[in-house]
Design a protein that fits this description.
With 159 residues, this protein is mainly alpha-helical. It folds into two domains: 65 residues, no CATH class; 78 residues. The protein is built from five helices and three strands; from the N terminus they run E-E-E-H-H-H-H-H. A three-stranded antiparallel sheet has the order 1-2-3. The chain is globular. The protein starts with a strand and ends with a helix.
Length: 159
């Protein structure tokens, strides 16, 4: 099963499909606005068959802590601003397609390119992290506002 999660912060949409879930209540507590949106898809499943869950931050933390493979400390480590900017510069030069997010398929392709790119650079620099650590770094690398700001810059250069 592949799981991805998106966190909306201060109204900033981090994924093109999240416009459908603004002002939604948490499905667990039914009290607080859902800010964490989890998409799950089974391997080999048809596109469009993914399941979505919507949580407030507190219920999401409880869900991640009690679900195998989900780490409640998912934001514990991150890339430094300097290192992240350096990686974005290298990525833009070698794989500009990673910044193409015009549709869902392009987002998936870009995510895979970025995941391989990040793993290669960490290995090249002898930076060892376990799988949970790598997921945290991936989240910081291409699920953060830094990435979406870079996407906007890349689009403006193309115009």
């Amino acid at each position: 099963m592949r799981a991805t999660f998106y966190l909306m912060q201060k109204g900033l949409l981090l994924h093109d499909r999240l416009d459908l879930v603004i002002n939604m209540l948490c499905q667990a507590c039914q009290q607080t606005e859902a800010l964490v949106h989890l998409t799950t898809q089974l391997p080999g499943a048809e596109p469009g068959t993914e399941g979505m869950q919507h949580f407030c931050k507190q219920c999401a933390d409880a869900y991640f802590a009690s679900t195998p493979g989900m780490n409640s400390a998912r934001d514990l480590i991150c890339l430094s601003d300097f290192y992240r900017a350096k990686l974005f510069d290298l990525l833009e030069t070698s794989h500009p397609e990673a910044f193409d997010n015009h549709d869902t398929e392009a987002c998936h392709r870009g995510s895979e390119v970025m995941r391989r790119f990040l793993r290669q650079h960490l290995e090249r620099e002898n930076i060892e992290v376990n799988e949970d650590g790598f997921k945290m770094l991936c989240s910081d690398f291409f699920c953060s506002h830094h990435f979406y700001a870079r996407v906007d810059e890349h689009k403006n250069k193309e115009l």
